[in-house]
Amino acid sequence: MRTLDLDRLGLKDGMRALDLGCGAGRHVHAMFYHAQATIIGVDLGFEDVKRTRQGFEASPDLEAGSRRRFGLAVADALRLPFPDGAFDIVICSEVLEHIPDYGAALREITRVLKPGGRLGVSVPRYWPESLNWRLEERYHRAPGGHIRIFRPRTLEKEIQAHGMRFTGHHHAHALHSPYWWLQCALWDSRDTSVLVRAYRRLLEWDILKRPALTRGLEALLNPVMGKSIAMYFTKAAA
Length: 238
Fold this sequence. Notes:
Layout: H1 6-9, E1 16-20, H2 26-34, E2 38-43, H3 46-54, E3 69-74, E4 87-93, H4 102-112, E5 113-124, H5 126-135, H6 138-141, H7 152-160, E6 164-172, H8 176-185, H9 194-209, H10 212-225, E7 228-235
Helix pairs in contact: 5-8, 8-9
């Protein structure tokens, strides 16, 4: 399940890209197979980094002679272990809503991104996320959960203040919004609910098979109820 558009980010052979807060590696893996580039994934959680590594096991693209490279590390978004201007592209997907001092994370992102480099950021969209909070307050009080809801224009301006030029946005994962509304509405029984389980199976089938029907339906619904907003920026050249 990919949130950010790698073509829109301009990922090409020979580049270096960072996935900050890589989780289980969905964007790391997507970038690795998108271009013959060097892809680095970092996350604060060791178990997530291990899961990302497992996704590369037995990959034919890791054979000798391949120009594809990847690296993984446990790292803090507020103190990234990379030199200035190390990356052509930085992705930060569904991460900033978890970080108390997200401004410090934005400063680190700006530091490690090359002049003229591109940044892709995604966060939960305001109105679907706010409905989750209204349906069940424990949704955002869980350890490691979401501690804020971003208004897109506010976040856009904050990122621009770090020397970034906004280049556009889109919404994603409309079919996932009702799943989380169901989870919040049925919070105490969400693990046993037949309805929640059935919807989860639908989403898993859609992710794996990508049938034209659900792909087309989600494309139509994304502008209305997409769960995430993806935003794109370019760092000033000087």
